[in-house]
Amino acid sequence: MVWFFDFWKELRLWLPALLVIFDVVLTVGCIAWIITIKNNSTSAVAWCLVIIFLPFLGAVFFFFFGYQHVNRTLKRKRRHKTRYQHPTNPTTVYDSSPDFSKAFAAAEPESKTMQMEMARLASRFGAFPLTVGNHITFFHDGPPCFDTMIQDMKAARHHIHLESFIFQPDAFGQQILELLTAKAKEGVQVRLLYDAMGSYHLKQRLLKPLRAAGGQISAFLSLNPFRRRFQINMRNHRKILVVDGGIGYVGGLNFGDEYLGKNAYFGYWRDTHLRLEGPAVWDLQRIFGEDFSFAAEISPRRLELALNNPEYFQLQRPPGGFPVQIVDSGPDRDLKAIREILFAAIVKARRRIWIATPYFVPDDGLLDALRLAAYAGVDVRILCQFKPDKWVPQYAARYYWAHVLPAGVRIYQYTPGMMHAKVMIVDDEWASVGTANLDNRSMFLNFEVNCVMYSGEAVAELEKAFLRDFERSILLERGPFANRPLGAKLLENACRLLSPVL
Predict the structure, then answer these.
(1) What ranges do the domains of the chain cover?
(2) Pairing mode, if any, of strands 131-141 and 352-356?
(3) CATH architecture group of domain 337-501
(4) Residue 488 in contact with residue 398, Cβ under 8 Å?
(5) Residue 261: which region, alpha, beta or left (left: phi > 0; alpha: psi -120 to 50)?
(6) Are strands 379-385 and 410-414 parallel, antiparallel or unpaired?
(7) Cα-Cα-Cα-Cα dihedral of 449, 253, 94, 75, to 10°?
(8) How many whole angstroms separate alpha carbon 275 and alpha carbon 455?
(9) What is the rounded distance in angstroms from the CA atom of residue 488 to the CA atom of residue 485?
């Protein structure tokens, strides 16, 4: 034992110097790493400062929250996406040509021009081709939407594909699991995909009956640090349900009691969700298939053989009247399609931009576009939370409110309960509903999906919901808000420093 104590004495003498050397090497290496992978200069500088001023701990923070690599290369992603081609697509129903004039024939000339430009831009940004002949049912809160979902799932005969960011193990979550298990026992193909971070309360024991009945279940980006795809920062925020290839759902609703308004803290839950019938559902099917194969580590070829047949792409009823474009976006792509499409819509607005988002933490480009639109006389309104579920994004949002209010942007805070809808309408012929909030996390870090509608009827339906919400909201007054306490302003500035990951 004498040699051990002698060694320990020597080590104690050298340990401080070794730690300093290690910290210098770690700091230099991390800064070089950050400069190499970060395209945004503000984010790069912020992370470099974290690494410098928080020795060792800063590197750990960056690994968990700043490193945005997913082991799915762009080449594989694009090749995978092209595998899921629709079976026999008549051009009268599924129009992937660059000539959109037939789809927008009923629009006014000025609106028609804007719609055609936006549809072409969306295609160039990586959106799915424009589809015509869709039926859309709009839901503005949870209970009626979930009732219809349950009816559709009970009527399923071939498959149920369910993808959700949050799947709670509460009474409603267990009701859905029991329904999926019953359908799997009937021989219906059931596939469930949930995000490992968003659904971290969902335990494997609750999923055993569904697995035993033949259901396929997978978690997106496991939180197990020993797995190859461990990633805590980027999450699958998509909410998709496809039933028998012809009915699809997309929007802001996850699965849990709070989305039914049964959580005492949140109270009434205000959200927007869509039920689609028509060829746009096929694009939701393709997104689900790609996400499920990645999460379950199924080879693209194997899943292609399983899903690429007409039984997964069915039309349930005659064509409807809504031109629709499905847009998916995520950190595995160089071009952030949803962000670019929303930016383009803001820039092209001539009369109004109404936005509903629970988290308003825009990047500099989106912030400048909104301010410019307001200065130009466009009616810009933002519907946000009054009682937040997350305080850090709320205080960060208040910092950005102070920058848009002087330009004439009107901020409404929704008071009846939790405002969770993700909606934008521009002028009278363009609307977007989906899973993406107007924050950096949705624009750059998360996997998201939006439904873009080129329809005056869709805008009118969403406008009615906005007007109801505005009546129940507090309109933020510029003067009193500017005179808020200094402590609040300091807290807002501190929180907005975290905006790259909010």
Answers:
(1) 2-66, 74-97+133-320, 337-501
(2) unpaired
(3) 2-Layer Sandwich (3.30)
(4) yes
(5) left
(6) parallel
(7) 30
(8) 16
(9) 5
Output the furthest CA–CA distance in the chain (Å, rounded).
Answer: 92
pLDDT over threshold 90, residue 99: no
Report the C-alpha gap between 56 and 58 in whole angstroms: 5
* Averaged confidence pLDDT in the chain: 84
For 300, the 3-state DSSP assignment is helix
Helix (H, G, I), strand (E, B) or coil at 337: helix
For residues 350 and 373, is the Cβ–Cβ distance under 8 A?
no
Both tokens of 195, joined, read 């995000």
Confidence (pLDDT) at 501: 62
Q: CA dist 264 to 197, 257, 267, 269, 416, Å?
A: 23, 10, 5, 11, 13
Residue 115: CA atoms inside 13 Å, Cβ hemisphere, count? 30
Instruction: Categorize the per-residue pLDDT at 271 as very low, low, confident or very high, splitting at 50, 70 and 90.
Output: very high
Residue identified by tokens 């689900």 is 288
DSSP state of 236: B
Type of residue at 394: Q
Structure tokens at 228: 């190859």
CATH class for domain 74-97+133-320? alpha beta
Distance from C-alpha of 180 to C-alpha of 445, rounded to nearest angstrom: 30
HSE-CB at 361 with a 13 A cutoff on CA atoms is 26
8 Å CB contact between 420 and 358: yes
Work out the number of other CB atoms within 10 angstroms of the CB of residue 67: 17
Asked if domains 74-97+133-320 and 337-501 share a fold, the reply is yes
| Sign (positive or negative) of CA dihedral 51, 57, 59, 65 | negative
**Given the structure tokens 């962000």, which residue do they identify?**
339
Cβ contacts of residue 317 below 8 Å, gap of 6+? Answer: 135, 246, 277
- Which residues are 161's β-sheet partners? 191, 242
- Candidates 288, 295, 117, 111; CA nearest to 219 is 295
Catalytically active residues are 237, 239, 244, 420, 422, 427
Q: What is the rounded distance in angstroms from the CA atom of residue 111 to the CA atom of residue 428?
A: 8
Give, for 382, the enclosing helix (H) or strand (E).
strand 379-385
**Six token digits for residue 429:** 């012929």
Structure tokens at 500: 């790259």
Q: Is the pLDDT of residue 263 over 60?
A: yes
- Cα distance between residue 326 and residue 328, in whole Å: 7
Q: Phi/psi at 4 (nearest 5 deg)?
A: -65, -45
pLDDT digits (tens, 9 = 90+) for 190-203: 999 999 988 989 99
- Look-up of token digits 């700091």: 27
Alpha carbon distances (Å) from 198 to 101, 238, 395, 446: 42, 11, 22, 12
In this model, does residue 100 exceed pLDDT 70? no
- First-last CA distance in the chain: 53
Phi, psi angle pair for 360, to nearest 5°:
-110, 90
Q: Determine the residue type at 157.
A: R
